[in-house]
Design a protein that fits this description.
By secondary structure, the protein is an all-beta fold. The protein contains 1 helix and 25 strands. The strands form 6 sheets. Strands 1, 2, 4, 5, 6, 9, 11 and 12 form an 8-stranded mixed sheet that branches. β1 and β2 form a beta hairpin. The longest helix is centred in the C-terminal third of the chain and has 5 residues. The radius of gyration is 19 Å and the shape is globular. The termini are close together. 42% of the residues are buried. Bound molecules: copper (II) ion (CU). Copper (II) ion binds next to loops.
């Protein structure tokens, strides 16, 4: 638990339900139920505890389809999700080895992570996936018994289908390798940070994660002096985030990175509230990285999971 977590009270009765359907090859994770009174900020809302999904198979996770639903399975607006983050506690992140491998995330933008044919994120049976969820409710409607549901199509390693190429989720954060949250001042602002790639390889595509009033993310390879992607957010008339685009390089064979390249991520915000929003912002470019030599990535497996707790390097909030 870091200092940020301590500001929140823990929501009672929120559990993780995991269903693995071996016919449709889909794992469905449900976090809930959560009661979300109207007009409640993420700082005031009781938050779910961290929950852990133990992967019951060897294979690949192929895609992530997040949505918010009520008890009867009807859709609830994505704007109630402040943030969710999935971390593989058994592996270190390839860009920020001080952190666990950050394998999936979503916010109000509810970006659907589609399958990239031929690729997948490799998991081993027994891997512990830690799920952090933060909710809020900026709307005038109260919602009861809300569930975060994430459907994850997978391929079992024992299947006859050809093995997949491994992708490694790349989180390029304006806070570099620290906690992702930061204060956003009133009006227009920009924040940027860098991270160094230590492996040769390609980025298959890039999307982004912002919070409300976020306007855009730019990812640059400053070593090559190239802009990798410019992602302009879609916001509503109040400046609340609706979506962040995804740019794919799969057709071109990926955007090439070399070991030693410095990547710079910049996020812009335009906060119309007239107030500084404490811990209100994140700015992360998110992509899939394919290393030129996959065998080098085996060193990222952790022998003693849980070290992050002691180092105080858990994700933000
Ligand atoms: Cu966030």
């Amino acid at each position: 638990m870091d200092m940020q977590h301590m500001h929140h009270s823990v929501a009672k009765g929120v559990t993780l339900e995991a269903k693995v359907d071996s016919v449709s090859h889909t794992a469905t994770l449900r976090v809930g139920p959560m009661n979300l009174p109207a007009h409640t900020s993420h700082m005031k809302m009781p938050q779910p505890p961290d929950l852990v999904w133990q992967v019951p198979f060897d294979g690949w996770l192929l895609a992530y389809h997040p949505r918010l639903v009520d008890a009867s399975g009807n859709s609830v607006p994505g704007t109630l999700l402040h943030h969710t983050a999935f971390w593989n506690e058994n592996r270190a992140d390839f860009l920020c080895p001080n952190k666990e491998e950050h394998i999936f995330g979503a916010g109000s933008e509810m970006t659907d992570w589609a399958e990239v044919p031929g690729y997948g994120y490799h998991v081993q049976k027994g891997d512990n996936i830690r799920i952090e969820t933060m909710v809020y409710n900026p709307t005038a409607t109260s919602y009861d018994k809300v569930y975060l549901e994430v459907a994850i199509p997978f391929q079992d390693a024992t299947e006859s289908a050809a093995a997949r190429k491994n992708v490694y989720p790349a989180w390029m954060d304006v806070k570099s390798c620290g906690n992702s949250g930061y204060d956003v001042p009133a009006g227009k602002s920009e924040k940027s940070g860098t991270v160094t790639v230590k492996y040769d390889g390609v980025l298959l595509g890039v999307g982004g994660h912002l919070h409300d009033y976020g306007r855009g993310i730019v990812l640059e390879d400053t070593t090559r002096k190239e802009t990798v992607a410019t992602l302009d957010a879609k916001v509503d008339e109040k400046g609340q985030l609706e979506s962040v685009p995804v740019k794919l390089f799969v057709q071109e064979g990926g955007f090439k990175f070399s070991a030693g390249d410095v990547l710079k991520t910049s996020a812009t915000y335009d906060n119309p509230t007239g107030k500084l929003l404490r811990d209100g912002a994140m700015g992360i470019a998110v992509g899939y990285f394919v290393p030129a030599d996959d065998s080098k990535m085996a060193a990222l497996r952790r022998k003693t999971p849980g070290m992050h707790e002691m180092a105080g390097m858990s994700h933000d909030h």
